Amino acid sequence: MSISATSHKIGEPVRRREDQRLLTGKGRFSDDVNLPNQVYAAMLRSPHPHARIRAIDSGKALAMPGVIAVFSGSDFIADGMQPIPYNQFTLHPAEMQLPNSDGTPAFTAPCYSIAIDKARYAGEIIAIVIAKTVNLAKDGAEAIEVDYEVLPAVTGTIAAADSKAPRLWDDARSNVCVDADVGAKDATAAAFARAAHVATLTTWIQRVTGVPMEPRAAVGEYDAATQRYTLHAGSGGAVRLKKDLALIFDTPVEKVRVRMDDVGGNFGTRGMIYPEFALVLWAARRVGLPVKWTCDRSEAFLSDFQGRDLAVTAELALDKEGTFLAMRGSNIGNAGGHTGSYTPLQKGVEIMSSLYRMPCANFRARAVVSNTTPTRPYRSSGRPEVMFVMERLIDIAAREFGFDRIELRRRNLLKSSELPYTNPFGMLYDSGDYHAAMDSALKLGDWAGFAGRRADTKVRGKLRGIGAANYVDTATGAPRERAEITVHPDGNVDLVLGIISNGQGHETSFAQLVHEWLGVPLDSVRLITGDTDIVSVGGGTHSGRGMRMGSVVIWNSANEIIAKGKRIAARLMECDPSVIRFADGRFAIENDGQAKSIFEIAAAAEQLKDLPDDLRGPLAAFSDESFNEASFPYGCHVCEVEIDPTLGTLEIIKYSAVDDVGRAVNPMIIHGQVHGGIVQGVGQALMEQCYYDPASGQPLTGSFMDYAMPRADNFPFFDTEISEVPCTTHPLGMRPAGEGGTTPALGVVINAVVDALAEYGVTHIEMPATPERIWRAIHGKSN
Amino acid sequence: MYDFAYLKPASLSDAANQLASPDSKLLAGGMSLIPSLKLRLNRYATLVDLGALADLKGIRREGDALVIGAMTPHAEVAASDEVLTVLPALASLAEGIGDPLVRNRGTLGGSIANADPAADYPAAVVGLGASVITNRRTITADDFFKGVFETALQPDEIITAVRFPIPKRAAYAKYRQPASRFALVGVFAVQSANGVRVAVTGAAPSVFRLAAAEAALIKRFAVAALDGITLDTEGLNSDIHASAEYRAHAVVEMTKRAVAAALK
Questions:
Q1: What domains sit in chain B, N to C, each tagged with a CATH number?
Q2: DSSP 8-class letter at A48
Q3: Which residues neighbour A439 within 8 Å (Cβ) at sequence distance 6 or greater?
Q4: B242 - beta bridge partners?
Q5: Are A739 and A383 in contact (CB under 8 A)?
Q6: Is B13 exposed, middle or buried (0-12, 13-18, 19+ CB in 10 A)?
Q7: Global model pTM greater than 0.80
Q8: Closest Cβ opposite residue A647 in set B40, B178, B253
Q9: What tens digit of pLDDT does each residue of A709-735 get?
Q10: Inter-residue contact A647 to B174 (CB < 8 Å)
Q11: What residues of chain A lie within 8 A of the CB of B245, using their CB?
């Protein structure tokens, strides 16, 4: 991997322009926002995973020095505040929908920003205290007396689906909110009936949390004169947040403004609206002062949305040569304490078959609610889970029925000539070269030389294993995006876009596009994304949509600027627009010495009085597009581990990744995305888990003392390679790059671990594959 | 964090007097205390900061022992030529505590007074048969640690130093808990003129000596002497990071590693 850029053009590993600012403490994050006369909010959170709120007495709290106000759910309702407008499913036209098999609608219940009748998870907001300092607000919260009727709780995914489980909503038939049956039931049953082999797996892809480096924070202000709300809070996107808040406040969208600058991590769990955002604005209106709230890390472990938590039973049917005939099974996703999102369930089950040739499939897909922190899409929503299942099933089948793991994959992996291909759930894979990606990854990981390395390891009394995993990733997201480009005569170029950088390096990669297409210096490009008074449209940062959609609307805008510029240049240089060529930021008459820079043209556009109406004024253009096709990034990872059997401790010796991005804008940034993605995936495979005590329902991982995050010394240097097979559904050939690092990482690591343990008869190990789990597997102890 | 009064006495006797007032607590490096205050897990009327007492800091050789002041930070122990020369096991233990910030602030006295069941220093204090010197008396290591966050110290008693006898050989083997990187199991194994001592931290509510291993190692200080030794799970910690069964196994394994390292 080369890290020295020779230019700022597309394809060059340009150093990130934002890093100087971010690494020297000059970033402006939500908690850096401080407004005159601001006061502070503390949230009183439920200590019980499930409890009815009988009464709240805030008398003592209100009598405390510095406490300004205490609000509860009844105040919220009395003020006419509305529930949070969640989209439980992704409605993107390229996604498979999950209708209940009995024809009933999915169960959803209104979720307010503050508990109204019941607390449905430990950490749900019961009351909000406003005080002159954070400390006084916390003192006030401790003085509130809540009369709870503690109710039995259920946290486990399978347990919650039981009809006898404690019920979160009295008016629901059970905790099962979605119960869909997808694929072809009869054809799948017939295929299983004639199968020579059936591999099976029952597993739980455990619950983890996103852990952004910057904890959440929000500052709310309300201007009584204009009746306008302004929220300062980091998120995945500003425009959607504005619309959501307008619905909660039942006010026109123009009465809400959202602002954000730097955002320290999103990963999906931070991408959407949070209850506290509405509460600080509401409190600001009620007390007439700006209200600030900053999340403690311990509060984040309780109240940040969590991810994964999918219970799966799956079967893969093969004929005697190893050709896949069908797959079937059941997925149960745990939505947590509110009916906020069933998207991970939906986005997973639709690609259960990954990028293998699968004639038919049939899955039952259920979503349940439970007394746990609500879940949301987390880096690659639903897909790492199902890729884990598929890649485990293949390894299980290979070992059980005597196939070579790689040959079994090769036999069933779709060939380029078979694309576009409709998978058994109706998802249309557009293009790619899956075999080339796998072959490259196997070469990069030196699969062929593994036997020798294993022998060396054995001499040292240790166990070595290797695994491979292919993946495909469905990228859709909010379909609409808009770019506005304005070229200023002073040498600056403004790029307005609805895509927030949460650390992805947009100030560099988007600027590279503008530099390439308009020939302006990289540093002239100012990216404006986080103020809804400027940014009118845009879907935010999720589902691999930033560069995929951003590039197209920037490209369209740049082309229009060039077209306008040619006409203005023709006017200035008194020639026909058809003889003007644009290159390197200059409009030149063909075969003539005369030329004008794009900034001279911008000045002329503002100065010349005799231009046609559509050319007069700032040299600007916009593009507003909807993207109704999905993109399918893919790749293959190879992982090699060494295990010390005495304690079951594990070391990752080698990790190799080949990820196809269609066309790489900034390979350095992409490698960085892959590295971070791998670490998040391996974290889940080996150490991370949000634990809930099964008896009490209490969360047990409340800090970094107990929630195990992967660290640099847990990893070797990664070997990452970028593949560039142009995407046929993207005008510039691009595929997303942000999620591929994570998607196959769960499966590839566990495949390597099981390979290392195979000599002990181990066929599967659950995540996180902790040293104790590995030790127990080696010694045949129950896990 | 709740409000508290902050005192920084200039003498040990002032510190003891101030500590006598109700709800007061000594502040050494603050690496456990300050986070617990920030999380509102603890509340004190007064914090008595020992930071101004220069006498409580420093490392010196006294005959066959190293005497380390209670306020000596871990980083100083880790980098001390004296410690590295005569008791390298202690230097390496100190080097493995927390991160650089913790090692530069956290102190020996603070660590053992706090008596966290997963802290490293208690294993060294008990393993080496050290003496805890306070403003009133000397407490032997075996009498010092009483339970989870519990010691023999009286409410107004202040540790001034710890006297570590210099052993013939010693080593500390630490199995880190993956999240906190405290000891999931830590074993300090020592061979000295007085015999063999093996102290275990992290595995139980308080540091303890592994009698079976000591008995075996007295006969022969070798890894092989530990073959067949097992530990009952009764009384061992069991939590989301490891079951008692795994900890019992890890104690024996880490003891072997400590002995192997001591013999190197």
A1: 5-165 (3.30.465.10), 169-263 (3.30.390.50)
A2: S
A3: none
A4: B239
A5: yes
A6: exposed
A7: yes
A8: B253
A9: 999 999 999 999 999 999 999 999 999
A10: no
A11: 781
